[in-house]
Amino acid sequence: MRTKPSMLNIAIVGGGQFCKEILDIATLNFEGKGVNARFTAVADPDRETPGIKMAEDLGLKTLKDYHDLYLPEYDIALIIVSQPKQQIFKDILETRPPHIRIMNYHVFNLFWKAIRFEERKLKAQNEEMKTIFNGIQDFILVITPEMEVVEVNGAFLDKMGYTSQQIIGMKCYDIYQKSYNQCMAHDSCCPLPDVIRNKRKSRMVQTRTMPDGSSRYYEVDVYPIWEKNGKISKFIHISRNVTDRKRQELEITRKLEKMVEERTRQLKETHEKLLHQDKMASLGKLSASVVHEINNPIAGILNLVMLVQRICKEGPVREKEIKQFRQYLNLMETETRRIGKIVSNLLAFSRQSGVELKPLDINQLIDITLFMNSNLLKLNGVKVEKSTAPDLPEFTGSQDQLEQVFMNFVSNAAESMKSTSDSILNIKTHCNPGMSKLIVSFSDTGVGIPRENISKLFEPFFTTKKRGKGIGLGLSVAYGIIKDHGGCIHVKSEVGQGATFTIELPIKRQLIQKNPKTK
Questions:
Q1: Element (H, E) at 103
Q2: Beta bridge partners of 493
Q3: How confident is the model at residue 76 (pLDDT cuts 50, 70, 90)?
Q4: DSSP secondary structure string for all residues of 31-86
Q5: What is the DSSP code (8-state) at residue 336?
Q6: CATH of domain 8-130
Q7: Which of 66, 79, 204, 498 could form a disulfide with 445 if both were Cys (CB 3.0 to 4.6 A apart)?
Q8: CATH no., domain 351-506
């Protein structure tokens, strides 16, 4: 175990002004500052010298005869001669015990002048730093880890109305609690706990309520000061008033928010106008399409009626003309059904028709659809291949609407395979692994769909069919029906490689009911 070194006792011979200066400036006990030494005695036959009097005031031993300093009870290790008389130095040098060292006046005076020079230099630097410290307009506090204030600058004292004696030794949170009504020892809005926890500087903007009730904003920085052993010895707490800057920022933010709000309102109005224009354009497009599509079969029916009337006016109707009338009636029936189909598509597109919900068997719906379209498939030479999974769970939905969707896919597939030699329609049904969705796919070997058209397939009035063959509502209607059932449609196709339409329907989701009056 390392033993603590013994204390070095120092005595001064000569109680003049130099002795007083030494005692006035030098630290009496250097223990704890890296030096185990202290001044313990002064020897001078004149009891009225300033050095003797100051030694008495300090409680040091005062002797008339410097030879008494040799006594073991004083345990003197060093004697400093503070007067220039060489006789005294020589006498002490000849009479002192071997363990006592001696420093003459000239040598000590040389060291002392160097010490005083450095002292004055440090004092000047200290005064300069103190002037700078007090000249800074930010509030600066030096705080111990126990949150006690050990130093404060003049700006804080002047603006807060305190004196240095009132502040030094107080807890920092007591000072701020008294001034701002909110600072506590472990206040979450204070950066000091964060510095202690993370051992690095921290910055925070605080809102402080003044005694008059007004609010001010302060930017607070806390910096740790480290000891050699790695511990934090003190904290530098700097706070500056940023109220004007913060209020400017808040005002700028308020103006920006107002500008964004106004711009949002303008964009909303513009969006509503564009939607209205788009609706009117769509309505015009729909009207033009409907008029064209309905006018053609009506004109045909009207021409046939007028033809029959003209034949009847010319005279008795013969067998040959009756056969013509039957052909005319078949044509009028075909055109009338065409008008009915156009109207049905329009009703389905506008969602105005009634919806009946019931448990459905998807495989059975597909069989019904294929039966209803058997003649169409036969005329187009389409071979149907089914791969339907057995024991599929029931699905609650609209049979009429889903049949319409399936019929649309079947008829589109048949039409796309008119010009192909090997026409095959492959229909598959199954459930996803989680048994949460029914999946139905229709794959054909037709001409396929160009990549640029795939994204437009479900848009109203988009069609690649020849004029008179459709108005582009079939897939749009199908898309809306599947969406209302909570499902989705995926398309995969390449030109010349056919197309696959895949429908996903959630099993547990109910059909979305729409109000017929909703526009």
A1: strand 101-103
A2: 499
A3: very high
A4: TTTT--EEEEEEE-S-TTSHHHHHHHHHT-EEES-GGGGGSGGG-EEEEEE-S--H
A5: H
A6: 3.40.50.720
A7: 498
A8: 3.30.565.10
Average pLDDT taken over every residue of the chain: 80
C-alpha–C-alpha distance, residues 194 and 197, integer Å: 5
H-only helix segments in 209-354: 243-314, 319-350
Closest CA to 193 of 170, 210, 217, 172: 172
pTM (whole model) above 0.85? no
Task: Tell me how far apart the alpha carbons of residues 426 and 448 are, in angstroms, rounded to a whole number.
Answer: 15
Nearest to 399 by CA among 372, 443, 364: 364
Select the CATH number that applies to the domain covering 136-241 from these four: 3.40.50.720, 1.10.530.10, 3.30.450.20, 3.30.70.920: 3.30.450.20
Torsion of CA 175, 177, 183, 184, to 10 degrees: 90
**How far apart are alpha carbons 501 and 374 in whole angstroms?**
20
Domain ranges of the chain: 8-130, 136-241, 248-348, 351-506
Please report the pLDDT score of residue 351 as a whole number. Answer: 54
> Is residue 205 scored above 70 in pLDDT?
yes
| Cα distances (angstroms) measured from residue 327 to each of 286, 310, 408, 448, 469 | 32, 16, 29, 37, 22
Written as six digits, the tokens of 389 are 């999974």
d(CA 93, CA 100): 9
| pLDDT per position as a tens digit, 32-44 | 455 677 889 999 9
SS3 95: helix
How far apart are alpha carbons 356 and 83 in whole angstroms?
124
Q: Round to the nearest angstrom and report the end-to-end CA distance of the chain.
A: 95
174 residue type, one letter: D
Residue 63 has what DSSP assignment? E
Give the pLDDT score at 213.
72
For the purposes of burial, counting CB atoms within 10 Å of the CB of 294, is it exposed (0-12), middle (13-18) or buried (19 or more)? middle
The phi and psi torsions of 435 (rounded to 5 degrees) equal 55, 35
- Give kind and range of the element (H or E) at residue 491: strand 488-493
Per the structure block, which two tokens stand in for 244?
């004007």
CA 169 to chain centroid: 42
Q: How far apart are CA 6 and CA 11, in angstroms?
A: 16
The DSSP 8-state label assigned to residue 433 in this structure reads T
Q: How far apart are CA 217 and CA 391, in angstroms?
A: 71
In sequence order, the 6+-apart residues with CB closer than 8 A to the CB of 68 are 43, 74
- Pick left, alpha or beta for residue 238 (phi over 0 → left; psi -120 to 50 → alpha; otherwise beta): beta
**Which residue type is seen at 175?**
I
How far, in Å, CA of 35 to CA of 77, rounded?
14
Say whether 351-506 and 136-241 share the same fold: no
- Please, are residues 397 and 416 in contact by the beta-carbon 8 Å criterion? no
